[in-house]
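Continuing the batch. This is chain 6 of the set; chains 1 through 5 are on the previous pages. Same settings as before, nothing changed between runs. Recording input and output for traceability.
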Amino acid sequence: MYIDSHCHLHLRDLAKRQAEILERMEDNQVSHALCVCISLEDFPQALKLAEKKPNIHTTVGVHPNPQGVEEPTVEKIVALTQHPKVVAIGETGLDYYRVKPKQKWQMDRFRIQIRASRIAGKPLVIHTRNAAEDTIRILQEEGAGIDKGGYAGVMHCFNENLAIARAALDMGFYISFSGILTYPASKELRKVAGYVPLDRLLIETDSPWLTPQAYRGQTNEPTYVLEVAKQLAAVRGMTIDKIGQITAENYFRLFGIQPAIV
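Output for chain 6:
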């Protein structure tokens, strides 16, 4: 069993090929996936897919990058999390790669979703790019993390250094690795992957983006999470099946999901 803990099956080319992709997942023992929302506008499409498939769940939240979209409020996010197929809030966080650093609107958007997480009792799906220190600082200021009586979550598509990993782990976050782990230049990231405790590891594709090295040039999809598992198994000196088992157990525990029979 393998689980894609972060994908966007409702977006772009994947949305047009859902039936084909879901069939390929089943054929390759990718048993579950989290279809992550990036705006309130796309939430209905993600939820619709999750409602149809017992092995698909979703999130509600607003990504740090898009402008001109509906801004979240604590009240609306909390209300939408009441649906049984909504298991987390996000993806949310900070991104200084595509947006000018330290924009108040981006930080406010992030803080609102952290507050909603604490009220709703749902984990966060955190996106951070070129903004790790501020991401950690705001999480700490807003009381995210199990050590402060709040709710932690997952640092998705982790591509930071060991110090940031430790800070996130100290707050109770899980660390999820994507196809980036398979890239030849990711030697330091593989060292981080060797450090993270086994009970905090997740694997993901972030599809349709970040295709693993073996399939570069193709559109990413959940089946390719096996490439991430394979690389993580090599780093940890374990079998790929054991990595699949461990990361599946972590997924169900973090998001409070009962394994589905499909």
